[in-house]
């Protein structure tokens, strides 16, 4: 939800300003003087309730320009509000792709619009060389990664089998 203003809401700022989140980023950058860029909030609804909610998988990209910022390391992160696994979907990263970031220069558009966004097609050699992996995490986990890492989101990869109908097992929509 990059354009709806949710990234600047009190809710988003309360997560961003959490002392534990700040502590981790201070350790990563080795300073308490932090400047935050918070461009969006990602929300995914359980598409089993409504198939129109299913996210499009495989829009691999990097959020750093390999031409203009080829050696600069930025760190992205999110605090997961729910468990993420093969039954829910979530963040997919391409391990080791940040070490081959310069290979994305030939596919990067130069210009002001989305200058820090580099779309990576599904047939790119780096996706074949390094197997994309779903990041499994628990509610409350902070997930951080190098912005040069190729990544995307995916819907659930597997369906959780429920053999007996039980009202206690009905998935609830997240209320914030």
From TrEMBL:
<dbReference type="InterPro" id="IPR008775">
    <property type="entry name" value="Phytyl_CoA_dOase-like"/>
</dbReference>
<protein>
    <recommendedName>
        <fullName>Phytanoyl-CoA dioxygenase</fullName>
    </recommendedName>
</protein>
<dbReference type="Pfam" id="PF05721">
    <property type="entry name" value="PhyH"/>
</dbReference>
């Amino acid at each position: 939800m990059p354009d709806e203003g949710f990234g600047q809401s009190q809710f988003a700022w309360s997560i961003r300003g959490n002392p534990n989140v700040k502590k981790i980023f201070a350790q990563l950058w080795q300073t308490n003087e932090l400047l935050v860029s918070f461009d969006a909030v990602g929300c995914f609804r359980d598409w089993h309730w409504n198939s129109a909610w299913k996210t499009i998988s495989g829009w691999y990209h990097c959020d750093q320009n390999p031409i203009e910022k080829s050696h600069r390391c930025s760190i992205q992160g999110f605090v997961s509000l729910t468990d993420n696994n093969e039954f829910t979907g979530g963040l997919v990263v391409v391990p080791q792709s940040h070490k081959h970031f310069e290979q994305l220069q030939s596919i990067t558009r130069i210009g002001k619009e989305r200058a820090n966004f580099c779309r990576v097609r599904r047939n790119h050699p780096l996706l074949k060389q390094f197997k994309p992996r779903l990041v499994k995490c628990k509610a409350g986990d902070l997930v951080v990664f190098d912005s040069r890492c190729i990544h995307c989101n995916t819907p659930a990869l597997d369906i959780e089998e429920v053999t007996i109908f039980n009202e206690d097992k009905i998935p609830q929509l997240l209320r914030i």
